[in-house]
Amino acid sequence: MALQDGLTERQLRHPAVVRLSRDTYLPRALAGETSARLAAVLLTAPPGAVLSHATAADLWGIAIPLQAEGGARVHLTVPMGSRAESRRDRSVHRTQLPDGDTTRRGGMPVTTPARTWRDLAAVLRPSALLAVSDQVLARWCSRGDLEQQLACRPTGRGSARARAVLPVADPRAESPMESVLRWLVHEAGLPPPELQYVVRDAHGRTTARADLAWPDRRLLVEFDGDVHRQRDVFVNDLRRQNRLVAAGWTVLRFTSADVLGRPDDVIAEIRRALR
C-alpha cells in the first residue's frame, strides 16, 4: 500500500521508518504510540476487522494480569471467510461477530466490553479472567450483560471457564492481583470472603478497610502492590496493622511474589488462620 501511494523501497528502508510487518510501516517517531500502531495495523487489515481480545481490553482500560510474552501484538477479529493470517505485529482470530458485539472507541472499531470478556475467556487462565470480570462489572457491564453474551456463545473454547468464573466475579475488587488472590481462595474451597470490609472501633469509627475479610474468624487478608513499598505508605501500613492486631484481628499480607511464586503456601496460611 505504501508503494502504491508513491513511496519507494529506499524510503521504506530509511532509518526513520519502522517496519511492523510485511506491508505495514510507521514513522519511527510514532512507533511508541499505541493509537498510531493500531491505526497502521487496521489500515492493512481486511474489511470488517475489529480490534479484540487483549487489544480491546486495553482500549477499555481493563488490565489483564499474568499476560504471557507477545502481548504487544495487536489482536484482530476478522470475518469468517477472510484469509488474513497472523503476523509479527498482529494476532488474527476468526469467529462470528454480530453487529451488537462491536462499537467504536477512539475512532477505531472494537469489540464491546461484554464481547471482549467472552473472547478473553477463551485465552486466559481462570484467575486472570476473574480479574477481567471484576473490572468489566465495575466499569462497563451488568452481570446480566455477561450472562447474555455467554448465552449467545454457550459452547466452544472458554465457555466452561466463563461459567465457572462469572459467579465469583465482584465489582468491589480494587486491583487485578487482588482478584487473582481471591481466585486462589475460591479454588481451594475456602469460605468466600467479604470484599473491602470496613473495620470499626468501639465508637463506630473506621479503623481500616481490608481487601478480603472473614469477620466471624477475625481474619483480614491484604494484597500489597508496589505502592506499599513507598516509605510513607509502608509506615502507615505498620501503624494500621498494629491497631488491628491490638483489636484482636489476624492480619495476613501477601505480595505478587507470594501469590504467583508460592500459591500453595498462601492458601495454607489462610487455611490455618481460618481454623
Automatic annotation (TrEMBL):
Entry-linked SUPFAM superfamilies: Restriction endonuclease-like
Coiled coil: none
One Pfam assignment: DUF559
Family annotation (InterPro entries): DUF559, Restrct_endonuc-II-like
Origin: domain of life: Bacteria
Positions of the DUF559 domain: 213-274
Region (Disordered), start-end ranges: 81-112
Protein name (Swiss-Prot/TrEMBL): DUF559 domain-containing protein
Origin species: Geodermatophilus amargosae
Lineage: Bacteria, Bacillati, Actinomycetota, Actinomycetes, Geodermatophilales
